[in-house]
Design brief:
Layout lengths: L1 H17 L31 H18 L2 E8 L6 H12 L4 E4 L6 H9 L3 E4 L12 H19 L5 E2 L10 H13 L3 E2 L4 E2 L13 H13 L7 E7 L5 H16 L2 E3 L8
Parallel strand pairs: 1-2, 1-7, 1-8, 2-3, 4-5, 6-7
């Protein structure tokens, strides 16, 4: 009797399995991977395979990594001068660094303007008059900017595309700055202020100590104020009186390199 029951039970189980049924089991959740992530294809340039995804991800990471690099833009105002501009160019050449020179129109300086360009630096427009009167009238401002632009172009066949306001924009009425910013944009310019300064226009600079102390102080004005700044625009001057600036520049370059900065010109600036 028992053998008959066993035979019937086995036959029932076989029939149950043959019908496509089975005992219930708990599903194991799958780990999401590149292969299982759904892609929304919008055009034929969209990702179409795992290899495409990996390649494009790697390319994106490289671009982001490049963009995340710390970049310092050395900017030099009020030149050129026969002593300090030449000395600064020598330092930059030795360090293999490019800078942006916001120049004023000066006669008998053609060879220095040309050297700035020929050595891969950028000439920027710093106005023609370097006077506060350009803030009184938008028309006067535009005339002044275009006069400076023409001065450089006529001498060197070089078109300036970056601008720095004399004295910068800090502390000026936003409405005044905006009107002039619109004028600059209309004439193909971007304008730049700065993040840190060597403070070489301080009228009391010579009273702070001896030359070594002053030079170290100017370098520290830059190197101790870089925290959290991946895009660093450094202000200094190269008119004939700025001898301490020249002496501080090598320490500034060395210090910024140690902090992980590379160097570029403002025509390549990206926010």
């Amino acid at each position: 009797m028992r053998s008959k029951i066993s035979i019937l039970y086995i036959a029932f189980i076989c029939a149950f399995l043959a019908a496509g049924c089975g005992l219930p089991r708990k599903d194991i959740p799958q780990k999401e991977s590149v292969d299982t992530v759904p892609f929304r294809l919008e055009n034929k340039n969209e990702i179409t395979s795992k290899n495409d995804f990996a390649g494009k991800t790697e390319e994106k990471e490289k671009k982001e990594e490049k963009y995340d690099n710390k970049i310092a833009y050395i900017t030099i105002d009020d030149g050129p001068s026969t002593n300090n501009t030449v000395a600064i160019l020598d330092i930059l050449k030795k360090a293999e660094i490019k800078a942006t020179f916001f120049v004023l129109p000066k006669n008998h300086m053609d060879d220095i303007y040309a050297r700035i360009i020929n050595e891969g630096h950028v000439l920027g427009n710093h106005s023609y008059s370097h006077s506060n009167h350009i803030y009184a009238s938008a028309d006067d401002f535009e005339k002044d900017v275009l006069k400076a632009k023409a001065f450089i172009y006529n001498k060197l066949n070089y078109t300036t595309t970056v601008f720095r306001f004399p004295g910068g924009t800090l502390g000026r009425k936003k409405s005044i700055v905006q009107k002039r910013a619109d004028i600059l944009e209309k004439n193909g310019y971007r304008y730049f202020d700065w993040d840190v300064s060597v403070a070489d226009t301080d009228p009391n600079l010579k009273n702070y100590g001896d030359e070594k102390f002053i030079v170290n102080l100017m370098a520290e004005n830059v190197l101790h104020n870089t925290s959290g700044k991946k895009r660093l625009i450094v202000l200094m001057h190269d008119d004939s009186a700025k001898i301490y600036t020249v002496k501080a520049l090598p320490s500034i370059i060395e210090g910024l390199k140690k902090q992980g900065y590379t160097f570029d010109v403002l025509t390549n600036y990206k926010k």
